[in-house]
Amino acid sequence: MQFSINREALLKPLQLVGGVVERRQTLPVLSNVLMVLEGNELALTGTDLEVELIGRVAGDSAKQAGAITVPARKLLDICKSLADSAVIDVTLKDNKLQLKSGRSRFTLTTLPAAEFPQVEEEPDTFSLAIGQSRLRELLDATSFAMAQQDVRYYLNGMLFEVANDYLRVVATDGHRLAMETIAMSNSIAETQQLILPRKGIMELARLLQDDAGEIVLTFGQNHIRAKVPEFTFTSKLVDGKFPDYNRVLPKGGDRTMLGECQELRQAFSRAAILSNEKYRGVRVILNAGELRILANNPEQEEAEEVVAVEYDSDSIEIGFNVSYLIDVLSTISSKKVKMTLSDPNSSALLEAEEGSDALYVVMPMRL
Q1: What ranges in 105-177 are assigned the alpha helix state H?
Q2: Which domains does the chain have, with CATH numbers?
Q3: Residues 24-43: tens digit of each pLDDT
Q4: How far is residue 61's CA from residue 34's CA, in Å, rounded to a whole number?
Q5: What three-state secondary structure class fits 2?
Q6: Quick check: 90 and 1 in contact, CB under 8 A?
Q7: Which SS3 state, helix, strand or coil, does residue 136 take?
Q8: What are the distances in angstroms from CA 337 to CA 172, 266, 285, 311, 350?
Q9: DSSP annotation string for 17-31
Q10: Nearest-CA neighbor of 181 among 191, 190, 189?
């Protein structure tokens, strides 16, 4: 294997592929990146057995094709440390990868490409094409509600529900839920539900570019594959049954509040400073025309915020985890937020006043 490549051209795919590679691995080859040179195209692959990412880049001058794996972190750090305009000459010799750039010389250990795990090919069941910026908006609007390291492993990911006329994404950790639906025509006979793992969602979101074109998502029995010209992303699907989110959506709330998103977020953030660090509970009291936020902690410290809102129903007092409310208000991009409540023991439904179909459910807290 022998080729030359511009440092800038190599760095971008290497950074993205390197993000998939785990630092602490049981298999030594999993901390490596697979380099495959065919013709003038260099493919870089990283995997942790759950998520695989292949980045492709054109080399400046390829002299000899080949395939090898090298330590991902060290290769990335070497590329970062070189000058922006540097050209790197890469040669595989005696099972060592030699890098030369200007007066710098590096020799890296390698492992055979044959040891690198490949995602098994499986028959694709269906595909859909969606704009990269649109998919990124969907993920950004909902991914914060995914669980982290929950024993209910199917919550540590995001539900993709695909029907012939819509795509819906849902995330929940059991205390809150985020959901958004977009209309699109898909050639699919019956509605499918698939769960993408948390790491897969995070890596996919990093790949998407706002000014780029469409991305094709292909769903198989056990994997999802996302393809753009420069990258192929593959992730295992979570094998489990996602809870019935329709049962969680509050129905028939008769109290509606409309408030300024930014103003409410700042008020909740200030009150949160003096909330109980463990439980993060705040009391929300709605009266005609105003919302009061009360917080206190075991040190007997208190905070009170009063925000003017549009509300003309009966008074209601309800407890919430303040972090969940701040997350929703930070995600909603419209100027105003609409909050629908029914009673102190029922979940609140939050949504943007305009410009988004995302729905957010936050369960109440006993204080």
Answers
A1: 132-142
A2: 2-115 (3.10.150.10), 124-246 (3.10.150.10), 251-362 (3.10.150.10)
A3: 778 899 999 999 999 889 99
A4: 19
A5: strand
A6: yes
A7: helix
A8: 20, 14, 17, 12, 7
A9: HHHHS-SS-SSGGGG
A10: 191
- Of 240, 248, 265, the residue nearest 175 (C-alpha): 248
3-class state of residue 214 by DSSP? strand
- 8 Å CB contact between 69 and 32: yes
The dihedral over CA atoms of 72, 225, 48, 231, expressed in degrees to the nearest 10, equals 10
> What tokens does 140 get?
């950004």
Residues 6+ apart with CB under 8 A from 244: none
pTM: 0.90
> What distance in Å separates the CA atoms of residue 201 and residue 139, rounded to the nearest whole number?
8
CA distance linking residue 197 with residue 363, whole number of Å:
24
Q: What would the pLDDT profile of 191-248 be if each residue is shown by its tens digit?
A: 999 999 999 999 999 999 888 799 999 999 899 999 888 899 999 999 999 999 999 9
Is 207:243 a contact under the CB 8 Å cutoff? no
Residue from 228, 54, 53 nearest 129 by CA: 228
What separation in angstroms does the CA of 256 have from each of 148, 288, 343? 31, 11, 12
